[in-house]
Structure prediction request, 83 residues.
Amino acid sequence: WFLSPDADLIIFGHTHKFTLENRLSGELYINPGEVCARNKPISEAVILDISDENFEITYCQRRIKENKWQYNKKIYKRVFEHV
Prediction:
């Protein structure tokens, strides 16, 4: 309800599932997942770097009994002009 017509990044949650969806119209939807691992044996998080040209998303995950995190990075071009 609070999206403006020029919103190009939408962050949402409550489903506890990592989601990254790039719409054809240019919007990028991110659900960072579940960092506390209450409902599943994996902790998840997202690191988001924003520049004038790109969104750089790093998805981080690890099993709760392991210390090592796994990282998967994706870069998306921003399509809307920003002032």
In short: The chain is about 0% helix and 45% strand. The mean pLDDT is 87.
